[in-house]
Amino acid sequence: MRKILILFILIITSAVSFAQFSTVQFSPATFTGDDEVTFTIDLSGTPLEGESDVYIWIFANDGSANTQYPFAGGIATNTEWTNSPVAAQFTNVSGNIWSYTFTGTELFGLTPGQLKYFQFLGKTKTGNKQTTNSPQYTFAPISYVPATYRLFPSRMNQDDAVTIFFYQNLSSELIESRMTPVSVTVTMYDNDNNSYGSPIEFPVEALGGKLFKFKSFIPSYSWNVSQGVILSRFTYYVNGNYFDVNGATIVVSAPLNSRTFDVLQ
Amino acid sequence: MKKILKITLFVSFMALMISSCKPDNDFSIGQPQNRLMQLAGTWKLQSVIQIDLIAKSNNFIDQARPDVSLTQLDITGIAPFTDMTVSFANDASNIPSTFAINYGAAPKIFKLTGGTWEVDDLKAPGNITFISGTETVSTILGNVNNLSAGMLTLKLIKSQGAKPVIEYNYNFIKN
To answer: What is the pTM assigned to this prediction?
Structure first.
């Protein structure tokens, strides 16, 4: 009974945390530890709704067991819980929407290679009100980290050639790891998060050793994007052949992935 | 005696050789290459290389698959890039004047189709800028020594803020 209660509390806490930070947006969308990054958050519905001054308490690598990523609090921000400094102050965008800008290496005093993720919470100057801890937000690695999917290049907008690589040997998902890849289906979304045009399937090219790449595409060219239309992101999933219980070939799809476009000049 | 004679003859010979050496005061290095004249004309796009500058600067390598580059890709075949031609014209004083781009079915990589062009240095150009009204596209002139052989490389850099993140190398040959 006690274990069920603890589990219930954890689930509720996670749900509340997710809801409080569901509006967080980053610019740029992908950033390394030495990039200047700005994020915005809508504090409506949180304990800080309506506050005229909001401050940050920010920390990196909390809970990481890897000594390559040591824990670090914001040097200029996490000085005194009951009297947050100016350096910790959010900038009001409008209403309950606030923004904060920082560079990881400067804020935490760590090298880009030591920064894996960060979290933050919002608070009043005295700390009498606060949000919960945010989810972990990941710094882009400065050394290659193998993953099931690799998008080339690491930064892109709608006018760049995009290539999707699929490292099937790194997948732990049952269907994804066992299917014979055939194609990838890509769907584009505009700035209002509406799908743009129709999804397009791009064929696979096997590179051997369970590594696959799909035909490269230029979003604005392949989707014939009209002048002035800005695409915000795209989703993709791999399609492949598998077998049903009777041994007949069936077509299956791997889990969906999403990628937000970067703002590039 | 014979030995002394041989040594004397050798030393005399060397003295004669050294004294006959005169400094060559001809420092001419030939005519300078006229890069603007070499640029003038029509160029046809042959290949496009895409480079991830973040991966390149951090020397990304996949130890498990060193045969698969993490830093650059040849993307020539993903669209009809080779449809594209660029024409440069100079005025009567050999100063850059107008350009024209015919994309055919190729992606509009330089966005512009015609206008004026400029270089940063008339004798040793390093950058070429395409101008149409208020719109400009800046490129870096690569491998200038290949111009005389009818090969042109224009590099386009895209940045995230102030940080260069992607480089495109567009390789042309003279039409």
So the answer is: 0.77
